[in-house]
Design goal:
Distance between the termini: 46 Å
Helix content: 25-40%
Structural class: alpha+beta
Strand content: 25-35%
Number of strands: 8
Length: 141
């Protein structure tokens, strides 16, 4: 009997991976690493280089921008997905409000996975396009 990866459900809710079939989500889950952090720990800091993508599995985290509260993250929420694609500064700070468990995927492992499974790139591009359509103003395309 196949073992169910507890992180598959979390990854399936991430728009970047929404077009990926279960076999690809399984590969992504195996590439990612769980990380437990104490309450009060800064997960990412605004203005610093982004290298990882995070899915919040357990706990609660706060998002601030310019020191001002922006959002509260709960299990299933994610952040830092653009760091997988390009090396840009973080646009906000995320701090653990409670102890948290995160699923972390770093850029190096992500790109290695795309080289190993090239068809995964097309699925991720579909997910990225959908995500951009959700957050970007309408275009003439």
């Amino acid at each position: 009997m196949a073992r169910h990866d507890p992180y598959l459900d979390h990854l399936a809710r991430v728009p970047l991976f929404a077009a990926c079939p279960k076999k690809h989500l399984t590969l992504i889950a195996r590439t990612a690493s769980p990380l437990d952090l104490a309450a009060g720990t800064r997960v990412i800091e605004e203005g610093t280089p982004g290298r990882e993508f995070f899915v919040l599995v357990e706990g609660e985290a706060s998002v601030t921008k310019g020191g001002q509260p922006v959002a509260t993250l709960h299990p299933g929420d994610f952040f830092g997905e653009m760091a997988l694609i390009e090396h840009t500064p973080r646009r906000a700070t995320v701090t653990a409000v409670t102890p948290v468990t995160l699923l972390v995927l770093d850029r190096g492992n992500f790109w290695a996975l795309l080289e190993e499974v090239p068809e995964l790139a097309g699925k991720i591009l579909i997910g990225l396009s959908r995500r951009l359509n959700e957050v970007a103003p309408p275009s003439v395309g």
